[in-house]
Each structure stands twice: as structure tokens, then as C-alpha cells.
Design a protein that fits this description.
Elements (H helix, E strand, L loop, with lengths): L1 H13 L8 H12 L2 H14 L4 H20 L3 H14 L4 H13 L3 H12 L5 H17 L3
Length: about 150
């Protein structure tokens, strides 16, 4: 089964124009089923480097990085997860899932100042009210965790 993802990624590497917005969710599912987030992330990083203004590509990459980070955390690897979440946040700072996951990990790692910075930047965006409220709650938690 893993050969299927490898074959599709090799094809897209050779023919990047074959990648359409409709194909991205299917690629994500295939990567999930085969635990192949790293190869998919690597391809998406290359494509984003060529076209960083493509919202479908940056969103797809952000989602893949987030899911890959969750796998790293599940395996007890916090540093790689932190790196992946930082990259996801860098790509799409307005995407609440990336903000939430990064800030939560920063709080857990006892670096609430970093979490506060991430959350305050997000709160300055025109995000949906429910996301802004969740960010404010997480910000209060971050501020509270900094006190002894």
C-alpha cells in the first residue's frame, strides 16, 4: 500500500502541474492511511517554495504538518512536533488549528511567553468569533501557567 503514495508523489514530483486543488484532500487521506506525511510534506514544501501565494498549497501543507506533529507527539517526540507546528503557523498564522496546537505545546513545554506571542498575534486577525474566544481562553491559560 505504501507504494501507492510513493508512486503518486513521484508522478507529481515529475509533473507538478498535475496537482489540483481537488487532489489535495485525497493525497492527505492517502498519506494518513500509509503514515506517509513526511514525503507528502516534502513535496508540498517544494511546491510552496515555487508558489508561496497559492492558498490551497499552503493550507494543505499546514494540515499535513499539523497531523505529522500530532504523530510525533503521540510517539513522545516533542522537539520535531514543535518544529512542524512552528512551520505550520509560519505558513498560515491565521489558521486557528495551527495556533492552538502550537500554543498548547508551548504551554506544556513551560514556554508560556512564546504561546502568549502566538496567541496575541492571532487575536489581532479577523478570525471567526468562536476561534477568537477559544484563543482568549488559551491566552488566559498561558498567562496563568507563567505564574508560580
Amino acid at each position: 500500500a505504501e507504494r501507492k503514495l510513493t508512486a503518486v508523489l513521484a508522478l507529481l514530483e515529475a509533473q507538478p502541474s498535475a496537482l489540483s486543488a481537488d487532489l489535495l484532500p485525497q493525497l492527505h487521506e492517502l498519506a494518513r492511511s500509509e503514515q506517509g506525511f513526511q514525503p507528502l510534506a516534502a513535496l508540498l514544501e517544494k511546491l510552496v517554495a515555487q508558489d508561496s501565494t497559492n492558498p490551497e498549497l499552503t493550507l494543505a501543507l499546514t494540515k499535513v504538518l499539523g497531523e505529522s506533529a500530532a504523530n510525533e507527539l503521540a510517539a513522545g517526540r516533542t522537539e520535531p512536533a514543535l518544529t512542524l507546528l512552528r512551520r505550520a503557523h509560519e505558513l498560515r498564522p491565521e489558521r486557528f488549528a495551527a495556533v492552538r496546537d502550537l500554543a498548547t505545546l508551548q504551554i506544556q513545554l513551560k514556554t508560556p511567553k512564546r504561546a502568549i506571542e502566538v496567541l496575541e498575534r492571532f487575536l489581532a486577525t479577523p478570525a471567526p468569533p468562536a476561534e477568537l474566544e477559544a484563543a482568549r481562553e488559551l491566552l488566559a491559560r498561558a498567562r496563568g501557567s507563567g505564574k508560580l
